[in-house]
Amino acid sequence: MLPAAARLTRSQDFGLVIRRGRRAGRPRLVVHALMDGGQRAGIRSSSPTRGRGSPPRVGFVVSKAVGNAVVRHRVARRLRHLMRDRLAALPEGTDLVVRALPPSADATSRDLGADLDATLRRLRLLSPAENGGDAR
Q1: Mapping DSSP to helix (H, G, I), strand (E, B) and coil, where does residue 112 land?
Q2: Neighbouring residues of 22: CB distance < 8 A, sequence distance ≥ 6
Q3: Model-level pTM?
Q4: β strands within the chain, DSSP E
Q5: Are the CB atoms for 33 and 116 separated by under 8 Å?
Q6: Residues 32-86: pLDDT tens digits?
């Protein structure tokens, strides 16, 4: 489980990250990232308390295209667990939306972790030598 301060929950926040953030994709998932709650790009944050110094937050989108409810919840649990291990390595004030694609339904946690690390490195949120955690 992610701590409450590390969760992206409001629909407006999801929309802001997806619209204004940078995006990197892999065959199993897409990650949208917005640094400093939009402050750096001159975008007014949806939350006045967000910005530099606030913990990174992450939200997940797992649509019905991924599978039935059991499969979607399994994918979301795996992604949540993988992101929990990588939160400490993310810059402060970063908001992420992780969108699972249909091939994620058949992926192992190791595959999802590798895709997650690759997208975070591509977005320059993790250094190339840094591995966010043990992706079992």
Answers
A1: helix
A2: 32, 33, 34, 123
A3: 0.83
A4: 22-25, 29-34, 57-62, 95-100
A5: no
A6: 999 875 554 444 444 544 555 789 999 999 999 999 999 999 999 999 999 999 9
CA-angle at 97, arms to 134 and 32, nearest 5°: 100
Return the residue matching tokens 């993988």. 82
21 within 8 A of 33, measured Cβ to Cβ? yes
Q: Give burial (CB, 10 Å; 0-12/13-18/19+) of 1.
A: exposed
The CATH number of the structural domain formed by 4-122 is 3.30.230.10
Q: Helix, strand or coil for residue 31?
A: strand
- In sequence order, what are the residues at sequence separation of 6 or more whose Cβ sits closer than 8 angstroms to the Cβ of residue 2? 58, 80, 83, 84, 87
Residue 110 pairs with which residues in a beta bridge? none
DSSP assigned state of 66: S
- What is the spatial distance between Cα 18 and Cα 14, in angstroms, rounded to a whole number? 6
Residue located via tokens 């295209």 = 65
- Picking from 128, 132, 65, the residue whose alpha carbon sits closest to that of residue 96 is 132
